[in-house]
Amino acid sequence: MCGQCGCHSTSSPPQPLPLDESTPRQVLRLHQNVLAKNDHDAEHNRALFRHQLVLNVLSSPGSGKTALIQRLLRDRHLILDGASTQPEQSAVRAGVIVGDLASDRDAERLRETGVPAIQITTGNLCHLEAASVAKAAQKLDLENLNLLIIENVGNLVCPAAYDLGENQRIVLMSVTEGEDKPLKYPTMFKSAHVIVISKVDIAEAVEFSREDAHYYLTHVAPQAQIFEVSAKTGQGLSQFYAYLKQAMILQCPELTSTLAS
Amino acid sequence: MHEISLMQSALSMALELAKSKGATHIHRMTLSIGELSGVVPDALAFAFDVVSAGTLAEGAELTLETVPTLCYCPHCWQEFHPTGWVYECPRCHHITHDIRQGQALELASLEVS
Do residue A223 and residue B97 have CB atoms under 8 angstroms apart? Predict the structure, then answer.
């Protein structure tokens, strides 16, 4: 039984028998998952976040994660309520956890939207771990939130291995990065539920080939939903918001009655 | 460079197990690395030298075994090893996302005394 909360998950495997002292060297066959602790913490987060849609947003540095989240938070009334509602009155009650190696500039930018944002400064750690997310979440009023957005550290390699307890993994790729990005970072793209091609307002200027990008994405990550958006002009966001609406209703079924009334 | 934190986790698991058995030395540590685990073996080896210094595992031999990716084709009901990053079934050419093996990073075994 888990020592933290009493759940039935077993993070420690069965212990091998004591050493046979008659043989100088012995081989212990173990086959233990090195990420078992993080996976265990992630399951705890999933239980903790059972009333929230949790998005883990990932990309290279500079692909526009913060800009997309900022836009989404300003537009939060457009996801469930409609344009006649003010963002502050929206049925979407959002909170953000944002990870960076240093500074809290992103959290400050996100707080400007009127949404609570907790910064995790990782120091030299290149990814967020489930335990750090759980600690940051204590600073949020979770009972009053139904959408939790986690902006991961800008990195397409390491964060792929760390489950944070999210429902949806959203990977961004901007048009300036090259259409073949999925071929270079397949592990990350294969782990995505959603892939957002960002900054499409400048696609033409950088000679971005939609056809090539979709070819690589659908071959490397056939499981992912693909959206093309511009956080600056709003292009493509309505489709992305419609997807988020469905995901929120699935995670928070009580929203159906709120929306109907 | 998440290999350092991964190696720290692997080593602390190994040390705990070795100590629980009353072992005084770890002579060899074997990790199995899934092709899709996102781990760079050279970086793990480098990390091992750094994090094992001053522990029961200092000077131990590190063996890294690669575990190939294994996919499943839902149309042919068969498993296959993909040849690249596109997981295309060699029989029907369906592109699958059903991955059965190759994502894990495991502490496979320890040789202790």
Answer: yes
pLDDT tens sequence across B56-105: 999 999 999 999 999 999 999 999 999 999 999 999 999 999 999 999 99
- Angle between helix axes A65-74 and A237-251 (nearest 10 degrees) is 70
DSSP per residue, A35-104? THHHHHHHHHHHHHTTTSEEEEEE-STTSSHHHHHHHHHHTHHHHHT-TTS-GGG-S--EEEEEEESS-S
pLDDT in tens, B34-65: 999 989 899 999 999 999 999 999 999 999 99
Q: Rounded to whole angstroms, what are the CA distances from A3 to A12, A41, A108, B87?
A: 10, 12, 36, 40
For residue B44, CA distances in Å to A50, A91, A153, B41 come to 35, 46, 21, 5
Q: Give the pair of three-digit tokens for residue A24.
A: 């100088």
Nearest chain A CA: its distance from B83 CA (Å): 13
Residue A65's closest CA among A220, A196, A183, A223?
A: A196
Q: Which residue of A has its CA nearest to B32?
A: A31
0.80 exceeded by pTM: yes
Q: Do B112 and A219 touch (CB under 8 A)?
A: no
